[in-house]
Design goal:
The protein is α+β, with helices and mostly antiparallel strands and 245 residues long. The chain is built from 10 helices and 10 strands. Strands 1-3-6 form a 3-stranded antiparallel sheet. Helix 3 crosses helix 4 and helix 3 crosses helix 8. The longest helix is centred in the first third of the chain and has 20 residues. It is globular, with a radius of gyration of 19 Å.
Length: 245
Amino acid sequence: MHKHTFIDRYFHSQKELLDFRSSDERDINTLYSYLNNLHSVADKLKDLFDCNIKNSPEFKILRLIRNYFHHVGDVDEVRLIAVIPEHVLISHTQNIIIPLETFAKSVKSFIDNNVVEGRKDYQRKMDFVTKELSIIGECFSYLNDILTNMKMCCDKPSLKLDGVVYELGFDMYKFVYNITNLIADSCRSIDELACKTVITSLDESYTVENNIGKIDTLYHPGKMKTPVTTMNGMIYPKNSIELAI
């Protein structure tokens, strides 16, 4: 009988989610299953091996989405292959994009569920939320923009780019990729897990040394305006970026 199959389930679900060769296996449950397997693997690594991945920014950001998915509403993603124009360097060519509205609502739900004015533990909970969001900010550049404009971001935020209105999106790919590398390295450091076939069969790219940085897109500012993540993928406006009213 196989032991610690929670590791097998995790790597099976992340492969189905990330690997384009598994695209035929994806269905409406793929993202939901992945997020639940991530939650499970984090709990079991901590409980069984005192290995804590829950402090990583990527885990915290994905947990927000998982908890929203699990307790509040649906999370629908769009899968795209990135089209990379001239003068742009990007860390990954696949996108797993959910509406920015959904991510903003995930953040708002986390805050609202923890910070309730008038409760005796209000300050302790506020300190906890502040710390969690600060850590998430280490891997996501636009968190402060969402916090500052929460009402707008929770109401289908959109921009008009070169005259065309696009709903804004949030790309999860980097966070899934990075946390998978952390889990792989963590398993290799635990003798009981390092010998599992699912771990020994991983190629050398599965390591935090290959993690994607906070800034994952480089472009020539003299050639184009700031790229924007939308539900249609990355858009590279040539002329104008305006609020969609």
